[in-house]
């Protein structure tokens, strides 16, 4: 039997279990770095299939499927954490944990990666190389990718290529969204404290008003994006919080401004960061205030290696003709998979899950989020093929 047909058969065999695993994880969501149950289940399953496992970064699991023949090592990464959201669906498998929900579909990611592991163990004897399964905790906010990499997720043996993916309700069920180059944005946080001097509201000249200085600063920072960045470079600076004072007629001592910067280009990212400091420094100096700026580089952009997008495209068209879609635009959202792609080549794709007939239309992070489970086996099959193809290329 041809390998493609053999794979399809094995994927079909495991597909009910993939759905069961997904529903089980969905019922028992766990937040960042608290994924004890999920992690234990992943480890038990991998071990039962003869895959070596290691627990790292608290609740992360690295599984290594060693092929019988020597060769490259290719990795798949799945994130395993849930969100602090109370689920508002009536699904039979809805969250049983108040205030926690798999509203970003990481339950499906974990189940799909397990499906790939189960299927590929069947091919161990003919495998030229190794496959690594990276089950990463804390994708949402807390940042689990970095500690996984620091713990050696990409070493021992060194990973030569990596695949990541996200279930994507913006795309119709069964479509595969692909984009060369950047697909998700960088995300940095800033906290700016303007230190003025308080005064009576009737006598502002006796103080230094941090509110007007803060307002000027926000406008000036927006001009960095609109006037200094080339118009075709997607860049977003959003100020989400401006806190100062407490009443009508008192000028406060300080104002605290918080915001986020998103870019697709590492050069634009460092340019804005540098210019931000210059603008804040000279503006506050001119207006006679002090400041403190905390700038945290949180996540790099997720930048796909074109060659591996080609691999995914070929595979998607073989497995499900007409399924691949070229995404013209990146998402300005972020994903810590970018850390992996900073270290090794690879690709991140979107697996369409939108199905209006089933009422599956809600965006990720919605309390009503769900996905079309019919796409789970497709995700398994595409990843199995892509990994095998990358081992021999
Ligand atoms: Zn999310
Ligand atoms: Zn997510």
Automatic annotation (TrEMBL):
Domain Peptidase M20 dimerisation: 190-283
Alphabetized Gene3D superfamilies for the sequence: 3.30.70.360, Zn peptidases
Keywords for this protein: Hydrolase, Manganese, Metal-binding
Similarity comment: family membership: Belongs to the peptidase M20 family.
GO molecular function: aminoacylase activity; metal ion binding
Annotated source species: Acetohalobium arabaticum (strain ATCC 49924 / DSM 5501 / Z-7288)
Keyword DNA repair recorded: no
Residues reported in the UniProt entry to bind Mn(2+): 104, 106, 140, 166, 365
Cofactor: Mn(2+)
Protein name: Amidohydrolase
Cofactor: binding details: The Mn(2+) ion enhances activity.
EC number, UniProt record: 3.5.1.14
Entry annotated with the keyword Lipoprotein: no
Class in the EC hierarchy, top level: hydrolase
Pfam families, sorted: M20_dimer, Peptidase_M20
